[in-house]
Amino acid sequence: MISLLSRAAGLTAIYLLVLTSLDPGDILIGGVLGLGLVLALRARPAPDRAQRSRAWLPAAAGVVWQTFVEMVIGSWRVVRLCLGGPARPGFVEIPMGERSRANVALWGVLTGEAPDEVPIDVDEERGLLIVHLVDASDPDGIRARHRAAFERWQRHVVA
Q1: DSSP of 23-39, one letter per residue?
Q2: Which pLDDT value is given to residue 46?
Q3: What's the whole-number mean pLDDT along residues 5-30?
Q4: What's the CA gap between 75 and 46, in Å, rounded?
Q5: Which of 16, 127, 145, 148 is the most buried (most CB within 10 A)?
Q6: How far apart are CA 95 and CA 146, in angstroms?
């Protein structure tokens, strides 16, 4: 308790030095801000690190494997396109579903790794992730593939 109060007093002193003021109102505001910061940033007991890593590592390994497979398949699609094979480039809208902002960021990074897919936009109003593909001939299959990847691996890596 004394440690918390001494940190709050130190932050209050810095606040007052910056303001170059000793008015009672400034002291009160500095004290409230200092105490609030100290309480908000205090150390909390961490969950068991071994337990967290046991749950996270298989999901992270799955994401790496999934990304590797998508890179190989995407490279084949690009080679096929370059050699004159059939392709129908286009945009596909993928529903965000239950993805958090962190999940959307992870989705963008992983999707961009495959050479045949480029994340274009996140339309938060409509709840859509927009991606451009070298071969967008089966949009329902693409949506299903992205949904399955999220459900199986990505959901567990990032909260």
Answers
A1: -HHHHHHHHHHHHHHHH
A2: 60
A3: 88
A4: 42
A5: 16
A6: 9
Q: Which residues contact 103 (CB under 8 A, 6 or more apart)?
A: 150, 154, 155, 158
Provide the residue type at 51 as one letter: Q
Tokens of 139: 């949009």
Token pair listed for 34: 């200092």
Read off the tokens for 55.
């749950």
What are the structure tokens assigned to 108, written together?
């963008």
Give the CA-trace dihedral at 108, 110, 111, 113, to 10 degrees. 120
Q: Which two tokens stand for residue 143?
A: 């949506």
How many Å apart are CA 112 and CA 76, to the nearest integer? 15
Provide the whole-model pTM: 0.60
Are 39 and 4 in contact, with CB atoms under 8 Å apart? Answer: yes
| Cβ atoms of residues 107 and 66 within 8 Å | no
Q: What confidence tens digit (pLDDT) does each residue in 147-156 have? A: 888 887 776 6
Cβ-Cβ contacts under 8 Å for 93 (sequence gap 6 or more): 123, 126, 128, 129, 130, 139
59 with 156: CB under 8 angstroms?
Answer: yes
Do 107 and 119 touch, CB atoms closer than 8 A? yes
Distances, alpha carbon 114 to alpha carbons 1, 4, 62, 140, in Å? 53, 50, 16, 19
CB atoms within 10 A of CB 114: 22
Determine the average pLDDT of the residues in 12-39: 88
